[in-house]
Amino acid sequence: MFRKLLIANRGEIALRIVRACRELDIATVAVYSEADQEALHVRFADEAVCIGAPRAAQSYLKAARIIAAAEITGAEAVHPGYGFLAENAEFAEICRSSDLVFVGPTPDQIRAMGDKAVARETMRAAGVPVVPGSGGTVSDEAEALKLAGEIGYPVMIKATAGGGGKGMRIAGYEGSFPRHFAGARAEAEAAFGDGGVYLERCLERPRHVEFQVFGDVHGRVLHLGERDCSIQRRHQKLVEESPSPALTPELRRRMGEAAVRAAEAIGYVGAGTVEFLLDASGEFYFIEMNTRIQVEHPVTEATTGLDLVKEQIRVAAGEPLSFPPGEQAHHGHAIEFRINAEDPARDFAPSPGLITTFHQPGGPGVRVDTHVYSGYRVPPFYDSLIAKLVVWGNSRREAVVRGREALESFVVEGISTTIGYLARITRDEGFLGGDVDTSFVEAFQDRSS
Ligand code: MV4
User: Fold this and answer.
1) Nearest 5°: phi and psi at 334?
2) Which of 13, 103, 348, 445 has the most CB atoms around it within 10 Å of its CB?
3) Which of 234, 279, 287 to mutate to test the pocket of ligand 1 (most atoms within 8 A of CB)?
4) Is the dihedral of CA 234, 198, 82, 241 positive or negative?
């Protein structure tokens, strides 16, 4: 096992990784920006190295400085967390050529899924269902228009370098296609330096159901069940839960098999997430694979009793997966609520600043992953997640009630947060019925205002 590991991240996930390392008896190195001098990941890690100015581009995204910090401190491995450099194949490659173990998949595996049109083709060839659409990217407008007619409107135009909904456009009918096609290409070029786009039939009010997968260097690949992430606002997830209220045992089995096939197709090693869209008729389609640990991984930890971050580190050290053979056992129901420093009354505008009071809930089945505390100043430079509330219950109903009580006793003063908004969701009839799809937030906002 590694003796020392560098954490190339900040916030709650950096603390999460510190805790996993403590249990594995691995020393930790934090890196931090000038804005994070007072951060808990800096205080709780065994050593800390300042790597630059507050902006991520000047610190957490500076591969060379992170590698230098690892070399100076004698770290043997680098855990990238999520965001920042977690899905940067070049960074994974630099780690390798610097004799550092990147805790995650290989550069080739990151690349195979990073290009979304290539990933679609790889999955289709492996027998994983994909949304009907183009084979690869399309650049010629006349050809794209013809293809769109064959796919059938509405048609979705997606950036191949995008993902998570970035650079996505819907053409509702033939007349609007050329405009959206040109718009999507220009947007993709500006945002990613790659104007490549592909087409998919636009599914009507799908659900977002993703499967947690894991692979080891000994060739074993398995899944740990699903998370339903249909409650999103502008492609930001607000609430995630497992099991998905939409799956039957039969559908879960088929989707789980498809998820494992997806990971096996690229010889996947480490923690990954295979994302599917599920339509109202029960058809499911691969859309993307994320080659990192995700924000919502504690939902799966709650229903499986496993520690996914420790498992990532063990797998990176070459150990076989520690999970028992066969189907993994799941217990009860878990829900994660993302608490952001945002003001729902001002269209979720960021609300950085000084937290004067922070009091977190507790009790049976309540877990809070956070890096903030009373007296902490939320910097304006990074994403707005300040805490994840993860509740567990024997039934969905019990989990929802625990979530509601926990949100109602959560006190954060000094800044605006999404706590009140999330508490209202727990009282919503649609949510209580498990009747959620991609239109949930819009419909909820209409009926609750
Ligand atoms: C789609 C779609 C409908 N049809 N693709 C993909 C990334 C995700 N964040 C948004 N994505 C969608 N892709 C096709 N072919 C609808 C969405 C979508 C969505 C998906 C899941 C959860 C919430 C969503 C909100 C808007 C759009």
Assistant:
1) -125, 145
2) 103
3) 287
4) positive
The finding on whether 278 has its CB within 6 A of some atom of ligand 1 is no
Question: Which of 277, 281, 289 to mutate for ligand 1's pocket (most ligand atoms within 8 Å of CB)?
Answer: 277
Q: Is 154 in the pocket of ligand 1 (CB under 6 A)?
A: no
131 in ligand 1 pocket by Cβ < 6 Å?
yes
pLDDT exceeds cutoff 80 at 438: no
Cβ(137)–Cβ(196) below 8 Å: yes
Q: Rounded to an integer, what distance in angstroms lies between the CA atom of residue 292 and that of residue 313?
A: 12
Residues 202-256 have pLDDT tens digits of 999 999 999 999 999 999 999 999 999 999 999 999 999 999 999 999 999 999 9
Q: How far apart are CA 431 and CA 73, in angstroms?
A: 48
Residue 126 lies in a domain: no
User: Of 10, 292, 314, 404, which is the active-site residue?
Assistant: 292
For tokens 């993302």, what's the residue?
A: 338
Q: What is the dihedral of CA 314, 12, 237, 161, to 10 degrees?
A: -60
DSSP state of 380: T
What would the two tokens of residue 373 be? 């505390």
C-alpha Rg value of the chain to the nearest Å: 21
User: Could you tell me the CATH number of the domain that includes residue 144?
Assistant: 3.30.1490.20
- Domain of residue 185 covers 132-201
Same domain, 57 and 75: yes
What CA–CA distances, in Å, run from 172 to 134, 146, 156, 292? 17, 15, 9, 34
Domains held by the chain: number = 3
Asked whether the predicted pLDDT for residue 445 surpasses 90, the reply is no
Q: pLDDT tens digits for 246-271?
A: 999 999 999 999 999 999 999 999 99
Domain shared by 176 and 43, yes or no: no
322 within a domain of the structure (yes/no): yes
Q: Where are the beta strands (DSSP E) in 314-395?
A: 333-340, 342-343, 349-350, 353-354, 357-359, 366-370, 377-378, 385-393
Q: Is residue 78, in this structure, part of any structural domain at all?
A: yes
Among 81, 109, 105, smallest CA distance to 295 is for 81
Structure tokens at 386: 């300040």
